[in-house]
Amino acid sequence: MAPADIDTSKPHPARLYDWYLGGKDNYPVDEELGRRLTAYAPVIPVMARMNRAFTHRATRWLAEQGIRQFLDIGTGIPTEPNLHQVAQTIAPDARVVYCDNDPVVLSHAQALLNGTPEGALGYVQADARETDRILAEAAEVLDFDRPIGLSLNALLHFLSDEMGAYAVVERLTAALVPGSHLVISHLTPDFHPEEASRKVRDMYKANGLTLDMRDRDRFARFFEGLDLVDPGILAAEEWHPELGEPVAGQENAHSGEYVGVARKA
User: Fold this and answer.
1) Which domains are assigned to the chain?
2) Contact 215, 188 (CB under 8 A)
3) In the beta sheet, which residues pair with residue 71?
4) What is the DSSP letter of 187?
5) SS3 call for 97
6) Per-residue pLDDT tens for 148-177?
7) What are the angstrom distances between the C-alpha of 201 and each of 14, 26, 101, 246?
8) Distances from the Cα of 33 to the Cαs of 86, 157, 172, 212, 251, in angstroms?
9) Nearest to residue 236, comparing CAs of 201, 261, 204?
10) Could you tell me which InterPro entries the record lists for this protein (predicted)?
C-alpha cells in the first residue's frame, strides 16, 4: 500500500519515467498510462533512456570542466548510475543536491544520498516552482558563492508558460555565480508529425498532466542571458556522443527532445 501522502489517483511524471526505464517504483495508474502511450509510440522507452544518457554525458562534461557542485531539480526515482555517481567518479569531492516533488522519490532518498566520503549529498522535497525554498535548503549543502551545475532535465515540458516555466529558470539562474552552468533537456514537437505530438499531449492532459512540448525557439528562450557552449542546441543524441555509450535501440530512434548547456558569464 502506498504511503498516505502519495497520490495514486493519477500518474506522476517521475513514476512514468521509472516505468519507461523498466523500474518497479510506480503504481497501476502510472503503468496504465505508460502502456497506452507506448502502444501509440513504442519508441518512448528508448527516448527516456536517451534522455538519461544525455544527463550522464552533460554531468561528466561539467565535472571535467571543473564544476564540483550540482543542483538537480526534477530528479526522478533513483536509477543507477545516479547523477552524483557520475560526478563523483570524476570528482570524488563533488557536492550534489537533488530535488523532486514526488514522495516516492523522497522514500528512496537514502539511495540518492549514498556517495563518497569526500563529497556531500542532499535532498529537497519541493515543487520546481518553489524556487526560494529550493535555494534555501540547497544552500545547506552547496556554496552559492562558487559555480554550480544546475540540471533541469526532462522537467520544464511539464510546466506551461502560464505555470511560470521561464520565471522558474530565471529565478534559479539569478542565484548562480558566474562560471555556473545550466543544463536542460526538453521534449519538442519539431521532430514528429503534428498529429502525433497532439495525441501524446491529449493523453497526458486526460490524466491531469501538463505536457508543453516547446519548439526550438521557445526552448532557446530558457538560455537567454547565458552563453551556450558548443555544440549548442541539438537533439539529445547529437550532444557530445563521444562522452557516453550508445543506447540500445537508438540507431532506429530519435530522442524527440532538444538539449543544451549554457554558461553564466
Assistant:
1) 13-263 (3.40.50.150)
2) yes
3) 97, 150
4) E
5) strand
6) 999 999 999 999 999 999 999 999 999 999
7) 17, 21, 21, 28
8) 31, 17, 32, 17, 26
9) 261
10) SAM-dependent_MTases_sf, SAM_dep_MeTrfase_SAV2177_type
